[in-house]
Amino acid sequence: EIRDALEATGLIDPAAIDLAEPKANVPADLALPCFKGAKQRGVAPPQLAQELAAALSFDADSLVGGVQPAGPFLNFTLNRSAFARQLLAEIQRLGDRYGSDDTGAGKTVVVEYSSPNIAKRMHVGHIRSTIIGQAINNLLRFQGYTTIADNHLGDYGTQFGTMIAAMERFGRPEGEGEAVLAAIEERYQRYNQLKGARAEDDDAHDTEALDDEARAWSLRLEQGDPRARELWQWMVDTTLRSNQRSYDRLGVRFDTQHGESFYAGMLPSVIARAEELPEAEREPGGALVIKGLRDANGKELPNFLLQRSDGATLYITRDVATIIYRETTYHPARIVYVVGHEQELHFRQTFALARALGYAQDIELTHVSFGRVFTADG
Ligand code: ARG
Questions:
Q1: What is the pLDDT of residue 125?
Q2: Which of 123, 152, 344 to mutate to test the pocket of ligand 1 (most atoms within 8 A of CB)?
Q3: Kindly report the CA angle at 354 between 351 and 357, in degrees rounded to 5?
């Protein structure tokens, strides 16, 4: 409005109209510095300010409430009641959509948050990722992005072999909810304690037997043994049902809940591709190590394993597979990981490796990290 009115006076070149926010102590909402326009007209800036003020007029319902020359500046004040009327009308018209925009129209963002581990109770620490992640998801959607909210569950790893071995030995707990999760945790700990106790007794043979038993279950699980799968699936379902109660209370909603195990089938091809990297090295024992990889800033990353000598993959291997899956499935402009600051290095390594393998070339990968919560006793 101000610009149009200034142009209509014919006293100032449109190119010389550069409205600025006045200093905090100036009783105005917008200001026009008149130096440039005055120079073009061959007059002193205060004179142009006076001339413009005299030539301008605004209607009573205009958003511009007043015009005041102040030295070389022309100051404008907002018509607060007109502004309030327009604003309230807009809020009424847009309702819950008020304040939204379409910055993200046509773009997809994968937002990964919460991501607890299976067969463990959620604790106060999980609330950070869960709440921050849902808030980011809500904000992005409000900006017009299509978001995929993904709960990247920790449902993979040798600990599941131990849990199954423990339940075979001590029995599968009955019931529902957190009490059952606590009972699984308890059996898992009892199994490890038994190992510890036997090691102290110098009964190396028995400790090994317990280790072998856990490892055997882990292997059976990976190979799809029905009994192992059944117990694992039961742990997954029980945990999901238990966690869902917290999510419902918090208004947290996911579009998918793919756990780490979902990507298992992709791991051999990730390994095969990674082996071609100049940074990849097969150790004599068979482990695959990535050495001297650099991050996006050219900083050299600490070496890391991609495959153990026994053929097992690692957390990072599955995270790289996850990026590949998301890229081909959702074609996102961005992937946001809402995970604690302890995993900062892990994500720098994950992102660098995915890019080195030729993935996520046009995807912005962001680790939204946050600090830890400590109780009073540390
Ligand atoms: N389950 C993991 C944990 O509890 C968090 C997963 C974070 N996300 C990821 N893509 N690695 O530590």
A1: 80
A2: 152
A3: 145
314's tokens: 């690692």
Q: Residue 373's pLDDT is what?
A: 79
Distance 311 CA to ligand 1 centre (A): 22
The pair of structure tokens assigned to 237 is 């379902």
Strands (E), 113-226: 146-150
CA of residue 345 to ligand 1 center, whole Å: 13
Q: Average pLDDT, whole number, for the chain? A: 95
Distance 312 CA to ligand 1 centre (A): 18
DSSP 309: T
Chain CA centroid to CA 46, Å = 53
pLDDT greater than 80 at residue 360: yes
The share of the chain scoring above pLDDT 90, in percent, equals 89
Q: Could you tell me how many residues make up the chain?
A: 378
Distance CA 136, CA 138 (A): 5
Q: How far apart are CA 121 and CA 132, in angstroms?
A: 19
pLDDT at 30: 97
CA dihedral (270, 275, 278, 280) positive or negative: positive
Report the separation in Å between the CA atom of 115 and the middle of ligand 1, taken as the mean of its atom positions: 6
Query: Closest Cα to atom 5, ligand 1: which residue?
Result: 115
How much is the average pLDDT of 287-304? 96
Amino acid identity, position 73: F
pLDDT above 70 coverage of the chain, percent: 100
Q: Which atom of ligand 1 has the smallest separation from the CA of 315?
A: 11
Q: Is residue 339 a contact partner of residue 154, using CB atoms and an 8 Å limit?
A: no
User: By three-state DSSP, how is residue 290 classified?
Assistant: strand
Give the pocket of ligand 1 (CB within 6 Å). Answer: 112, 115-117, 152, 154, 319, 337, 339
Reported as a single tens digit per residue, the pLDDT across 127-150 is: 999 999 999 999 999 999 999 999
pTM of structure = 0.81
* Gyration radius (Cα) of the chain, Å: 31
The partner residues of 307 in beta bridges, in order of sequence, read 288, 313
Q: Where are the beta strands (DSSP E) in the chain?
A: 30-33, 64-70, 73-78, 108-112, 146-150, 280-282, 288-290, 304-307, 334-338, 364-368
Burial class (CB in 10 A: 0-12, 13-18, 19+), 288: buried
